[in-house]
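Hi P.,

Sorry for the delay on this. The queue was packed all week, but I finally got your sequence through. Input first:
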Amino acid sequence: MNFSLTMMERSKRFFQMLAAVLVSLLSVECEPAVGQIETNKPPINYETTEPNDRVAALGRKLDDGSAQLKWEADFGWLKSLLEQLDVPTSSQTLVFSKTSKQIRRISPSSPRAIYFNDEVYVAFVPGGEFLEVGAVDPVQGAMFYSIEQENAVQPRLVRETHKCMSCHETSKTQKVPGFLVRSVFPKRSGHPEFRLGTTLVDHRTEFKDRFGGWYVTGDHGEMRHRGNVLLMEPNETGLDREKGANLQRLPRVVRKPAIEPTSDIVALMLLEHQAQFHNHVTHASYTARQALHHQELMNKVLERAQGFRSDTTKRRLKAAAEKLVRYLFFVDEFKLTSPVKGNSSFQTEFESKAVRSSDGESLRDLDLQTRLLKNPCSYLVYSESFCSLPEAVLSIVKRRMLEVLEGVDESEDFGHLSDDDRKRILRVLNETHPMFAK
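Then the structure:
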C-alpha cells in the first residue's frame, strides 16, 4: 500500500513536471503570439455572446413593437434611426472612396455618409440596400448590424459577423473586432489606388496624410490634406491638395442627397480619435480576459493557489494597460500648425454633452489651435466600455493615469502634458468620474 501511494505520488509529480515543461515550450504559460487573440473561443466567444449595446437594445424594441422607425423617401429609415440612437446629424462625414460593402453605389458624386456619437456609428449610402450600423458593447467591443432600406411594415436590425470581419478584425483594428478610419489615394471612379498605399488614421497621423477619399469642409489654415480631390491624370500619382483646401461647401460633383451640406473637419478629427480608442479598450479587455483565463487553466494543472499570476500574465496586463494609457493621454499626437474650425453645429453639440468640474472644465472642450482637446485626456474614459474593463487591467490603467497626472511619471513620453494640463485633468476626473472621485 505504501509502495502504491509512493508510485502515485511520483506519477503525479512527473505529470506536473511534464505540464510545466509543456507550458514553457508553449511560449511561457501558453501566452499566445503577439496579436493572436482567439475571439471566437473562451473566454471571449464573440460571435455566440448576446450583445448588450445600444443598437441591440433598440433592435429588441423593434422586434417586440415597443419602438418604431419612420420611413422617408430620400433617406429610408436613416433619420428615424439616428433620432432613436441619439446620433446628431451634425456629425455627418462623407467618404467617397469605394471602401465599403456597398461599393457599387459609392462614388465621388454619391458619397457614403457616416454619423456617430460616443458609442454608435451609422452609415448611409444613397440608393443603398441597407444601413450599416456599428455599436460599442460594454464588454465585447465593436458590434455590427444592418437594416434593410425597404419600406417594410417592421424593419429589423440584423447582427452581422463574418461579412464585416474581413475589414473590421485585422491588424488595423489590433486583431479585435473594431472600427477604422482610412485615408487613401482615390481615382476618379472612387476606387483607391492601392499601389500608393493607404493610411490608418487617428490623432497621431500627420495632417498631410489624412482624409484621402473623404470630403472635408471647414478651415485648416496653411495645413494641407488629401481630402476633396482625386488623383490627377494621366499617371494618377498626385493630388492637387491646394484645390481641396479650406472648402466651405461640398464640391459640385456631389449630386446625391445628404442630410447636411457639410462634412465637418472637426467631426472627422474626433471620428479618427475615437475609432481607435474603442479598439484600444477592446484590445485591453480581450488581452486581460484571455491572460486570466490561461492563467486559471495553468493554475489548475500546476495546482497553484487560486488567483496566482505569473510574471508573464502580469507583463501582458501591464503592456495592454500601457498602450491604452498612452493613447488616452494623446502621446505622439500630431501638433496642429494652423487653427482648425468646423462649419457646422457639431462642435457646439459635442461640447454641450460635457460633464464639467466646479470651475467649468471638462474633457470635451476642444482646443483646435495646436491639438484636438484643450485637456488631453480622452472624453471616452467616461464610456461604459472603459469603465467595464476587467479589474485586473483597469486597476493598472487607473494607477498609471494617476502616476502621470500627479507627476510621479515624469518621462518624456508624457512631456506634452504641462503641469497645468495635469492639474486640470486630475481636478476634472476627481470631481466628475466615479473611478477617480475623492
